[in-house]
Amino acid sequence: MIYVTMAQRIVLDEENIKNEFIRHNAELADKAIKTAKKELQIKHKRTEELSRLMQLAYEDRLKGKMPEDICVSFIRKYSEEQKRLEEEIAGLETKLNETENTLQSADDFIRNIKKYLEAPTLTREMCYELLDRVVVGGLPKITGKEREIDIVYKVDIASVLRHKFKK
User: How confident is the model at residue 104 (pLDDT cuts 50, 70, 90)?
Assistant: First the structure.
């Protein structure tokens, strides 16, 4: 019943809820985004430096300034670090892109809420579109407590609603 009330609030105050959702997520993600961008910049700079160092080691080897085994060791070490950094960069860029898709997520979620607001029963399609997962607690016989069921939506708009309506 509480979820129906939340859904009705979302539909009745769609623009404000969407703006509050975006603001709320922006506050949560702002520090993480700044840190990720700074980290990306540092990692990009280091990969460029590693490329330069590998080239210098190779040139020093060709000029006879460095023994071949040391050159190969340096290039192998630099290459491994560069591969690791490239993987980390890809992960950070993915995380940044996900954060930037927040607006689209809110729009999709609100559209789905509107679509299913008057639905008489819960369907499989509704679950796929609205829910991320359902966590079912342990059996009462084992835990000694009532079974808890937690519903995790694809978009955490419920926390925004709780925050907005507490004000």
Answer: low
Give the Cα separation of 79 and 93 in Å (integer). 21
1 pLDDT above the threshold of 50: no
Q: How far is CA 121 from the centre of its chain?
A: 31
Place of tokens 């999709």: 108
Of residues 92 and 103, more confidence is placed in 92
The contacts of residue 122 (CB under 8 Å, 6+ apart) are none
Rg of the Cα trace of the chain? Answer: 26
Secondary element (H or E) of residue 105: helix 102-116
Task: Decide if 4 contacts 144 (C-beta within 8 A).
Answer: no
